Each structure stands twice: as C-alpha cells, then as structure tokens.
Amino acid sequence: MSEINVRAAVPADVEGINALVQPLAVDGILLGKELVTLYEAVQEFTVAVDETGRVVGCGALHVMWRDLAEVRTLGVAPEVRGRGVGGAILRHLLERAREFSLRRVFCLTFETEFFSRYGFTEMSEQPIDPKVFSELVRSHDDGVAEFLDLARVKPNTLGNTRMILHL
Questions:
Q1: Number of structural domains found in the chain
Q2: Strands 161-166 and 121-122
Q3: CATH no. for residue 28?
Q4: How far is Cα 47 from Cα 50, in angstroms, rounded to an integer?
Q5: Helix (H, G, I), strand (E, B) or coil at 149
Q6: Burial category of 87 from C-beta neighbours within 10 Å (exposed 0-12, middle 13-18, buried 19 and up)
Q7: Residue 46 CB neighbours (<10 A)
Q8: Of 4, 35, 111, 130, which residue is 20 to 30 A from 82 by alpha carbon distance?
Q9: How many other β-carbons are positioned within 10 Å of the β-carbon of residue 86?
C-alpha cells in the first residue's frame, strides 16, 4: 500500500478536494460545493494525500455553536477505499473537535455502519435547548437546517441519516 498522509488542508489542496467531491456529488453521495465555497472553508478541511501529493480523501469539521459541530464532506477516492483512509480523516476531525472543547459532533450520512464504529448514534430528538434552537434557526446554512430537522429541508437533501456523537 502506498503512503497516505492525513493533515489539515491548505489552499493548494482545494482543487484536489473539488476533484474528489464532484463525482461523489454527481452520484448523490455528497452535496456538491462551489469551488469558491471550498476555498472559503479550507480551514475546516482535513485531507488525505498520497505520496504524489494527490488528495485521496477529505472531510470537514464545521462548527455550528459553542459546543456543536458537523462532520461534512467526508469522502474517499474509490482506489483507496477500504484502507482506513476515511477512519483516519474522521479521527483527525474528532481530535480537532476535542481541541475546540466541543461536546457534540453530528453528521448526515448513508454510511451509518461506518459512523457507528466511531460512536455515532442515530438522532431521534432535537438535542439542543430552545434558546440555542432559536439562535441556530436564523442560520441560512443547509447543514444547520438539516441538524434542526427544519421543514425546508424535509425530506433531507440526500435522504440520509442524522447521527450524533457525544464527546
């Protein structure tokens, strides 16, 4: 197996992230992102790169509130799937969440078995108090709307499962 390095993304990685995400978006696995959006959010991303420097995996940690974040855009290139790349990226993102003193991380996913292995469980109720809900509902971010289970995103964009991890 070739050497894979997992690290925080830098602006030079954005085109590689985009090249990885676009086919997954076409297949309905991930939400598509505009290139400018990826550049604006590069500090949220972790990447896995092969020995040539090509991005073969990515994921983002999007902070939503004082103690809450979302794992977004977690994807792995087909040729390295099954080699632990997705897990390495997720562990890196969860470590960042701990560094930020976050208590909860959620995701929207079809890969419930994968996230379950890392302690995520399916969300059944709204896990925030009404005061925080009233603040978050003001966000225009679709990920926040998915987390809040708002009517404007029902059924949710991809038809995936809301899962949460308590750190």
A1: 1
A2: antiparallel
A3: 3.40.630.30
A4: 10
A5: coil
A6: middle
A7: 24
A8: 35
A9: 22
Cα separation, 145 vs 147, in Å, equals 5
| Whole-angstrom distance, CA of residue 62 vs CA of residue 71 | 6
Residue with tokens 């390495």: 88
CB burial of 12-27 (b: ≥16 within 10 Å; e: otherwise) equals: ebbebbbebbeebbee
Amino acid at 149: D
Q: Phi/psi class of residue 149: alpha, beta or left (left: φ > 0; alpha: ψ in -120 to 50)?
A: left
pLDDT in tens, 35-69: 999 999 999 999 999 999 999 999 999 998 889 89
Residues 106-124, mean pLDDT to the nearest whole number: 91
Domain of 30? Answer: 5-166
For residue 138, the tally of other CB atoms under 10 A from its CB is 7
Following DSSP, what letter does each residue of 70-101 receive, concatenated?
EEEEEEE-GGGTTTTHHHHHHHHHHHHHHHTT
